[in-house]
Specification:
Length: about 250
Amino acid sequence: MKCTEAGIFLQKNILSRTDSTCNLFIKMHISARYISYKAARNWYANLKLVKPTPQDPPFKHVVQIGDPTLRQVAVKLYEDEIGTPEIQFLIKRLKYVFKKYNCVGLSAPQIGASFQILLAEFNHDHLKIYSKKEIESKEITLQPETVIINPVMKVLDYNKVIFSESCESVKGFYADVPRYRKIELKGLTEEGKPISLIAQGWWARILQHEIDHLNGKLYTDIMEPKTLTCSCWNIVNERGGRVQIPFGHQ
Ligand SMILES: [Zn+2]
């Protein structure tokens, strides 16, 4: 579309509008005869006449705190539902978002689907950001990709350990959160087979965080409130506030 055509197109499409912004635009562009395509596109975008198409869950993005889905107790699945194309698609989508966001844990409610499904993994890439001292103190261990459906948790060590934690659904923040040191989980795999595992340290923390999601809870419910920190507060100061936090994956 050429510049002049863009101007005519926009005029045709706004002539029915009577607000002052449109009138100003019409006056301006009837006298100027044409408008640059970029200016027209920006002006049109600012009118917000083009609405984004709402997406249906399961999403390719992670929903944020305030979304009602994050506060629901997720629905348990019957064994014969696990193999259905719908649930297998949901698990596939969960894995897709998990990789895109480079998560260590993600639950189905976080992509808008309130079912009792969690996914967790701790691999070599995740390990890179931790010092040797942290790996020891946090009891960090490598863990394979693990899908657990309908998880039931039993606490094996009631001692709680406090470490900093963040969540893709509370983007841009972290806080100190107490968690049980050792737990046992029972549930079903993505093939519908029974799974039972014992988790300690960091792995136990990741799994407890995801189980909380399945029960409509977030770490902000149990965090030490005064430790809540914006993950880029210092960059905000350095750049005079000109910082944007992306809510999609990079
Ligand atoms: Zn989370």
